[in-house]
Each structure stands twice: as C-alpha cells, then as structure tokens.
Design a protein that fits this description.
about 550 residues, alpha/beta, Immunoglobulin-like, TIM Barrel, 3 domains, 8-stranded parallel β-barrel, about 35% helix, globular
C-alpha cells in the first residue's frame, strides 16, 4: 500500500506493520502465554517490525524502487514454507507449443473449479456454502458423493448450487451396483443407462423433443441453468466400477478397460440420441506418472486411457474411437509433489503432470481426439493438519504449500491448455485434509484465500506470453486478466519451485502493484530496467497501476 507524509503516513505505517505482524506471527499468538508475557513481548516485536519496515518503505513514505536504483529486491509478505520431498528441476516439463496455447479461443468459463460432495455443499443450513463459493470466485463445481446412492440429491442442495451461478459437472457413478453384482457386462450397462436416464432426465437440458428436465419444470422460478456436463463413472481404472474390496486384486486392468470401453460407448450413444446438447466427459482416470512407464496392469492413467481407446477401436472401429466422448477428464494426483515440477519419493514413481498430460494427449491425437478439451476433474494436496490424521495419506504438505500448489496448478493447467480444474475438496472429507474451509468453524484456510486472490486479480485469465517457462524451476507468465472483457490488463505471475530466488521481471516503465498469493501488496516503480523481486514457491502477481 502506498504511504504518504505526515500524520496520515504514520497511521498507515502502523496499519501496514500491524497487518505484517498478524500475517507473520499468527503462530506466535496461538501459544498459550500469560497476559503479562503477551503484553511485554508483543510491543517489543511490534517495535522491531516498525524499524524493520524500512526494508520495504523508506521514512519519507516513498515507494520501493526496483533494481533501477532502489533498496534491493522486493520481498512481499508471503514467507517461503518448507517444500516437501526432493524437487528435481532438471526434468524437462513437456509443455505444448506456447503459441498454440496463446492462439486458443478465449475461455468462456475460467479455469477455477472446485470438487464437492453434495452433502458437504449442503452443510451450514440455509446459507450452506453458497456465499463462500461466490466469495472465493469458483466458476465451476464438480458434484459427486452421497447423491450417487439415491435417486436424486435433495432439491434444496440443487437450488443452492443453481443460485451460486456456477457451472456444474455431475459425475455418474452407481455405488450400489457394480459389475460383480450383475449377471453380465450387458446387464451392468443396461442398469447404468437407466441410472443415466434418470439423472439427466431430472437435471439436464431439454431433450430432443424439447422437454425440460423434471427439476426445472418443478422449479420454474429458478434461473434455468441445466447441467450440460456429465462424467461417465469415477476412476474406472480403480476398483469402483468392478468389484468389492475383498476381490480388488482379482480384477485386472485389462478387464476394467474392456468394460469401460463398452460403458463409455453405450452411454455416449444413448445420451447424444436423447440430449444432443449434453457434453459427455469420459475416462475420469486416476493416477499420474512422468510418462508411459507404468505397466498396463497398474492403475496409472496413461496405460488405462490407451487400453480403452484400443478396445473401442477393436470392438467398434476407428470412427467410434474418435467419437465416444466430448471431453477427456483426468485426476492427476501427485501426492506431495508440486504441480509444475517433479518430486521423487523413494517408494513411488516419478510424478509430472505436464509429462503425463503430454502422454495421453498423444494417445488422443492418435485415435482422432486430438482437438478435444482436457479437464482435471479431481486433484488436490493433503495437509499435514486437519480433520484426519496425516497418516491417512503417504505424503502431506503444509497449509502454506497447499495453497501455493493450488494456485500454481491453475496456472500450470492454463499453460497446458487444460480448460477446467476441480480441486478436492470444499471441506475435509474421505480421509483427505484438502478442504478449503474448516468443517466445524467455516474458517477460511490459506488455500481459499489464495484462490480468492487469484480470482480477484485474474477473474477470467488467458495466458499471453512467457518470461520464463520453467527453466530451473522458475516460472513467470503474462496473463490477460479478464480475456472476455473490453479491457483486460496484463498480469505477470511468477514463482520459483524449490526455494527463494532473486529475479528481474522485465516490464514497461511505470508504477506497479505486487500482490502475494494471500493478498498482501507492495507498490513499486520501474524506471526502465524491470522489477527486481525475490520470489519463492508462493506465487506473486504484478500489475501496472
């Protein structure tokens, strides 16, 4: 924030330092100290910070200058947290052509998405989490969870979702019916089609005869926002489609891929015949590795996607392999690895979202689906604190790093050309401490604050160029901040994967605002040679005033 002279400047300096104190020393305040101790220590720390604040602003209230004559690199108020694991920045991330991504059509919906079980979206009574979803700025929500057990979700839940104004993706998975509960593949598929018909028939758009879904005819006063996007099953390369836990090991990836090939084709043909405007989202595969090194009988996404395409080609021909889904979805979980580099835990495979994405993009192109969108419909990072024990996941990250990874994931996805990213979860659930809000208190976690910062600064972003495309773990991109608006200011986003780094950001002369991922700001001036700034795993955003 800008500081001015006189009494006003003094007051603003105090406010600035107080914000600084609150931000950096929340953990200090959380200790159980006596009132006397706090009364003595707090003023001393505050005085020290007032003195130290000259690192960012001089005593005359002038803006911090960059490397063109200022006091050194800017350091915004988001300290580096411990990065887990061993980050390998030497592994090249396989990105598509930058120019090809820049040339893509402007996105009609921002990349910012959320994954929520409907039962968690409903928590909180009349208010539920509609307000929080709107305040954060999520544009799209994937709905899954308990509704899959019932004929429909509660009308109250759907009303709240509709009133949020978000785009909805429904995942169609029968948890009560699996292949091992049916007499044949055909019996399983027939029951699934009946399930699909009921769901889309209630919440979907007009069918080929012009009939609206029953939910919409039953609530004529609601904004008409039918669900257009429907995902065929959840993680069929895992156990959910085929067998009970007691027989997981008896079902091979070959069996899963063959059954899903039939299910995907049958679902696509039925849906398109009855609801031509519906978009069918296929695969929903779980797991990610650096490349296609996973054995075909492993649960990796690349091998499964390849096998399903091959099965469809064998059973139905090339034409059907190229016409059996509208969007490919993936769940590129990487445990504690970053979204934009590689982490090498000793007992696991090498993870790289970018290189995995390149792997199934190649498969899609080979089978005639190269031009179709890709969505990440489930992904997240397990915090080492939360509603569930950290041991529930093999790896976990701090709350600060979780927030940084989510922000970087959205931007990495845009660099890859991925159109939607649904981050798991709204609240902690399913033994996963990935929630954006505290389950009991509704308190915002840093991940929610960080996403809100992004959506405020870049409400509908589109990548416009690269300053650094990941060399040695350093990323810096130019984004159109709101590509559908008449005026779309350019935002520079920058971070360094493994630790702190001083960089010079090239930009036009003039005054700039630097914002950290949690909303702290510093004003600076570039007089011609760029902005000299210290960055780290937590991204910063630079905007010309």
């Amino acid at each position: 924030m800008a500081l001015y002279t006189g009494k006003v400047a003094a007051m603003k300096q105090i406010i600035h330092v107080a914000r600084f104190y609150i931000f950096y020393f929340r953990s200090f305040l959380s200790f159980d100290m006596g009132a006397l101790h706090r009364a003595v220590v707090f003023p001393l720390m505050l005085f020290a910070l007032i003195v130290a604040s000259g690192d960012c602003f001089n005593t005359n209230g002038k803006k911090n200058k960059s490397n063109n004559g200022g006091e050194g690199p800017l350091s915004v108020s988001c300290p580096t947290a411990q990065v887990p694991g061993t980050i390998n920045t030497a592994i090249t991330q396989t990105f598509p052509s930058l120019q090809a991504i820049i040339n893509k059509a402007d996105p009609s919906i921002p990349v910012y998405g959320l994954y929520s079980w409907e039962s968690y979206y409903e928590k909180g009574g009349v208010n539920n989490y509609q307000q929080e979803v709107q305040q954060v700025g999520w544009a799209t929500v994937r709905i899954g969870g308990l509704y899959e057990y019932a004929d429909s979700i509660p009308d109250s839940t759907m009303i709240n979702i509709v009133n949020s104004g978000v785009e909805v993706l429904f995942t169609l998975m029968m948890k009560g019916t699996r292949r091992d509960t049916c007499s044949s593949d055909e019996d399983f598929i027939q029951k699934y089609i009946a399930f699909v018909d009921k769901k889309i028939g209630k919440y979907g758009p007009e069918d080929k005869n012009g009939t609206k879904g029953s939910f919409w005819t039953g609530h004529p006063s609601l904004p008409y926002r039918p669900v257009i996007y429907w995902e065929i099953w959840n993680e069929p390369n895992e156990h959910y489609m085929y067998a009970l836990p007691s027989s997981w090991n008896s079902v091979t990836m070959t069996q899963k891929a063959a059954l899903y090939a039939k299910l995907l084709v049958a679902s696509y043909d039925y849906i398109k015949a009855k609801w031509p405007s519906v978009k069918v989202v296929g695969f929903s595969a779980s797991g990610v590795s650096r490349n296609d090194m996973w054995a075909k009988e492993s649960p990796g996404n690349i091998g499964f996607i390849e096998m399903v395409h091959q099965n469809i080609k064998t059973m139905y021909g090339n034409g059907k392999a190229a016409n059996c889904y509208d969007i490919l979805s993936d769940h590129p979980y990487v445990h504690c690895a970053p979204p934009d580099s590689e982490d090498i835990p000793s007992q696991w495979y090498h993870y790289s979202i970018a290189n995995s994405h390149a792997g199934y993009r190649e498969i899609m192109s080979r089978y005639g689906n190269g031009g179709k969108p890709v969505w990440f419909t489930e992904i997240g990072w397990h915090r080492n604190t939360g509603a569930f024990p950290a041991s529930a996941q093999p790896f976990s990250v701090s709350e600060r790093i979780q927030a940084a990874y989510v922000c970087r994931l959205y931007m990495t996805a845009m660099r890859l050309g991925v159109e939607r990213v649904h981050v798991m979860f709204l609240l902690d659930a399913d033994n996963f401490n990935g929630g954006f809000f505290n389950n009991q208190t509704r308190a915002w976690r840093e991940s929610a604050r960080a996403v809100q910062t992004m959506t405020r600064i870049m409400p509908n972003p589109k990548i416009a160029g690269a300053i650094s495309d990941g060399a040695d773990g350093y990323y810096a991109y130019r984004f159109e901040s709101n590509c559908l608006a008449q005026s779309s200011p350019i935002i520079i986003a920058a971070w360094n994967v493994a630790g702190e780094k001083n960089v010079a950001i090239p930009c036009d002369s003039g005054d700039y605002i630097v914002t950290d991922m949690l909303g702290g700001t510093i004003e600076t001036t570039n007089e011609g040679s760029g902005i000299n700034i210290q960055i780290g795993p937590c991204p910063v955003f630079i905007k010309k005033k």
